[in-house]
Write a structure and sequence with these properties.
This protein is α+β, with helices and mostly antiparallel strands and 405 residues long. The chain has helices at residues 8-130, 137-170, 217-226, 249-263, 272-280, 296-299, and strands at residues 178-181, 184-188, 201-205, 208-211, 267-268, 331-337, 362-365, 381-384, 393-395, 398-400.
Length: 405
Amino acid sequence: MPDDALSEKEKAEIAQKAESQKRINRKWFPPAIVGAFVAIIVIKGWYIVNYNNIEKIQLELKQLQLMLKDTEVKLSKQNAELKKAKEATDKQTTKLTAANKNLQLELAENKKNYEDQLSQLEFDISRLADFGNKKSKDLLAAEKNVQEVKAKLASIEEAQKKAKRRGDKIKGIPIPEMVTIKGGSLLMGDKDGKDREKPAHKVTIKPFAMSKYEITFAEYDRFAIENNKQLPDDSGWGRGNRPVINVSWDEAREYAVWLTKKTGEKYRLPTEAEWEYAARAGETTSYSCGENPSCLEDIAWYGKNSWGQPHPVGEKEPNKWGLFDMAGNVWEWVEDDWHDNYKDAPDNGSAWIDNPIRGSDRVMRGGCWINPAQRCQSAYRRYDAPGYRSHVVGFRLSRSVSPGP
């Protein structure tokens, strides 16, 4: 129908409806458009956030994979070191078992010889008695010889029992090689040194044995494994014949107690006086090799030549008493409590222990691979708490021995 055919009233109604629709459109379309834009932004933001999260997760996963691979490499290296240590242990066990067997054979032969001597002496005594010479010099001498032979037989029998016990316990246990140190005396400390090294004082030392080398990972790891202890960290340098590190004073003593039970021999940490006596090896100079620090090149791994790490034991020359690495390589725990100086220190070589409550710190000796020469002097001393562990600290053992004739 043409517009001009509509009445004025109808035209007005149509115009009014059109205007109403415009008002409705103006109210609805802008919010819809805004809502659509907001929805787009939210969706895009969600996508960006989640995409970034996915990238982050993928990166973390990659890092975890690298860490896992690194752990596998370290574990493989550790297993190789443990295998090498086990081979060394087996070799040492075979050697020690053979030596113990030879000792038992030698003891058996000696016992037989003394039994033959005893039999002959008893026969001679019976003949002398038959001749009525009960108070003769020959008879008295024979009776004395009998007592001496019986005493030697008793000593051999005790040694046989000890050798058997050692043979029963020695299987699979790496035993530190020991050097017997004769008793004597030393001027302990340094009258020209630090206050902690004064006063220099005379100390008398009884005979004792000290481990030829610092205790190694191969020796200590067996103890740790058997007692379900965490293996000490080797700081990435390797295990085997290297000196054990990251071991506290408490753990060093536990190892000594364990080794004592395994072997029947009483192992312990050396006293501070024993340690200095052994380190000096009869010398009164700053180092066992002389007064000039340059001599350390031959006997010690220290800050000047260590290349930033400890080294396998026994690579340098020993001191005059056959002990290796008494200067440098790693600091060594001793039994004594720490005291700021030597005033009132014991003069008989025993450990200086506070009673009834032990002091809070323990003594370390010898210097280490990171130290300057001055800290590797025979008289130099330092301390730390008994629970302290470090990649510069290890230990060696001592054992009391009976005085010689």
